[in-house]
Amino acid sequence: MKHFLYLLPFALCPVSxxxxxxxxxxxxxxxxxxxxxxEYLGPVVTAVMDATGGDERxxxxxxxxxxxxxxxxxxxxxxxQAMLQLRAQGANLETAPEAVRLRAxxxxxxxxxxxxxxxxxAHFCGSGVGAPADEEEGMKYLMRACRENSARARAAYLLxxxxxxxxxxAGAAVASELKKNNFYVxxxxxxxxxxxxxxxxxxxxxxxxxxxxxxxxFTLGLYYLQQGKDALGYDFLKLAADRDxxxxxxxxxxLMLPGAELSxxxxxxxxxxxxxxxxxxxxxxxxxxxxxxxxxxxxxHKQPEKYAPERVFELYRQAADAGDPRGGVAYAYCLVTGxxxxxxxxxxxxxxxxxxxxxxxxxxxxxADLYFNGAGVPADMAKAISCLTAAASVGVPQSYTxxxxxxxLGNAAKASDPSRARIYLRMAEERxxxxxxxxxxxxxxxxxxxxxx
Length: 453
Hints:
This protein has helices spanning about 20-35, 40-50, 60-70, 70-90, 95-110, 115-125, 135-145, 150-160, 165, 170-180, 185-190, 200-210, 215-225, 230-240, 245-255, 265-270, 275-285, 295-300, 310-320, 325-335, 345-355, 360-375, 380-395, 395-410, 420-430, 435-445. The protein has four domains: about 1-160, Serine Threonine Protein Phosphatase 5, Tetratricopeptide repeat (Alpha Horseshoe); about 215-290, Alpha Horseshoe (Serine Threonine Protein Phosphatase 5, Tetratricopeptide repeat), CATH 1.25.40; about 305-395, Tetratricopeptide repeat domain (Serine Threonine Protein Phosphatase 5, Tetratricopeptide repeat, Alpha Horseshoe); about 395-453, no CATH class. The chain contains 26 helices and no strands. By secondary structure, the chain is an all-alpha fold.
């Protein structure tokens, strides 16, 4: 059975509304996106960030408020993000109550004539989201969007009808779309290029990028970076980021972090800039890219004078909600220690234990820390070392550094063993720990954990 392909679209839609009030700014930008029949929320992010002085915490609430008021753009965006989260959780998208609710939300947005919602309904129907799959109903939605001149819908129709695969670029319908610079079609043609014909695929991607495709620019950026053509790869990655491709924003931010490992060519192009990196990570988060939550939280954590612990905790909570194991560990640790939130030690320890049972490596590292310091649990050196050993057994590099510290300092149960400590340090470095010797020296000098029995 054919399935309707789910595409994350990024059609450009500029907006010039400048209003001070965040709610008004958000609504004005949403209206501009709706008027342009665009799915690109970059203008909304920009408007809210400008109005709030860069405080990303207000954005989700403003978007939800607009959705509660029935704004089709906000409804579509939030329903799409929630559906992706359900899929990541492995939920049954046909019968799950939340999927049924999301389908109703998308229908509400589509009923207002917002074409991206109409295309989403085609996908929901064809793929069986919130109800059994119904290709005929899905095709009705798709044809409706085609009649309203949706480039994404026209490309999807050509794909589903088999014309892209059968006709290639020679078919009249495909040729017509190519004359319209429909980069969705060009992206499909790149994907359907014969295996091994890398040059042809690259030609289609280059054409799609020249016609405004953020996804094609991002793909080319990664390709050229992998090929060692760093300057060209950076140019395409920067182009994709300028078009608000969320993953490109996060990738570019990571390259700008102080201490990032860069080739000689990239060092001549990119200068360390943590402020710009934070801005790019933040934008990626607001555009729905959950993997950027953890690095953004990490940058906030490094600047406590600028970003309150509550903002760090909120990012960890969002990452945990998105199913990121690292977010779950950090969120639980904060609950135990009360960093950025009211302490809930029992709940935090329970979450960590659940993560340990689920095989999340860093959960053992966090539990070890708690047992060492007696935070949320009774201090217990034996359990702490057991947790560290478990983390080390699955390759968590930091665990080896901590084992080196404990071995160097010794305790009542085991005497100091500097030679074995050096072995642990070497293992930490081999497994990717950054500057383990520096961390080791600092903790040993402080007599870390020597007070433990």
